[in-house]
Sequence to fold (449 residues):
Amino acid sequence: MALLPRLAPTGSMAYVIAQHMAQGGHSDLMLRLLNQHSRLRVVMASEGMQLQPDYIYLIPAGKDGLARGNCLHLQEPTSENLSSPSVNILFASLAEAYGQRAIGIVLSGAGSDGAMGCRAIRAMGGITIAQDPLTALFDGMPSAAVAARAVDHIRKIDDIPELLHALIAQTVEPPSPPAATLSALPPLLEKVFAATGCDFSNYKEETLLRRLERRMSLLNIRSLEDYLAHIERHPAELSVIQHLFLVSLSSFFRDRDAFLGLQQALRPIIGAKAPQEKIRMWVPGCASGEEVYTLAIILHEILGPRFEQSDICVIGTDLNSEALALAREGLYPESAMKEVPKEVLESYFETSGSQYRVIGSVRSKCLFERRDVVSGAAPEELDLVSCRNLLIYMKGNLQDQLLRSFHRALLPHGLLFLGQSESLGQIGNSLFVPMDLSHKLYRRRQSRI
Fold:
């Protein structure tokens, strides 16, 4: 209640409230109370209702609410949800629908609902806010979100509207670009390395600066020098930068033709293995895990009934803890299924409300670990390394370093699978021979450099 009177019209933002009320809860009474305390109009959400700026939508008791495009949809809750209405379900759908424009706010409440949803929003570049747990009547939900390291801002309830209006203003009328200069970047990267162990000195400066500029705009900071001063006052910002620099995008069967080509190339390699031989694959920079599960599904298609008895491990590694948590869950919104063939969707996914969970037999063959692809040791004796759309963010010397690492990690017959915008340099071409250039698929050469 304390937040609503402070929300002023902006003409650019709609609000959705998911308040825990079981079936039979007093939704109408809650609607009247909220309207009495709000400067904006509060309406009861209904199926297919279009979101409009300066309205507040209350999810009715006993229903889960989610956004698809610019509309709200209601569904029956499932037993897997922590609470109903589920904040996690709502936040995950906002992350998919709005990406960087999504803002998730976790207020007073019991339990841990909302933490996983905050991770989903942050993984898509959105902003998350938690009420300061010390000021919350029930601190369970904001404390869980903070403990999950899934929150960008922790604020007292009175300070949240001012922060929201600042974020909205920057979206509607963005300030002039911050003065992010190359000369100030090395000191910042040194601080990130000292705090997190992640070395971004060989990443392309233009990419890093673009991401920094967005973060500085959100904080209303105009120069990297001022941002360094901000970090001195708020050391936890270094962890935010680490996640900001990491690529956390993935999808099922991204470039379907490329995966069909991969499946054909893998079929004789996997088919030639003895029943007791291991099958190992690695996806560095796996983000939320869709590509890892895609590879496991391809193996199931190749092996058929032998899949469950085979010694298979598809390893996904990343430095983004929030994205890895989503990957381990194996639960994805309907929008993530747009490139999944219908027969694959029916065979390898189970419905959970409006979401889809990868079936257990496939999930059991996948392992997710937090690991730095640059400084961490690579897995060994691999049949495939799928490193798609990661090398393009790195300078040539770091690309060569990784290609050498992939070469050492692969078995003699091993394959390297790259993204459509990536290519091998001189070192890479000495280590790998093209198998299918149109789909960026290469076989390991026997030479070592």
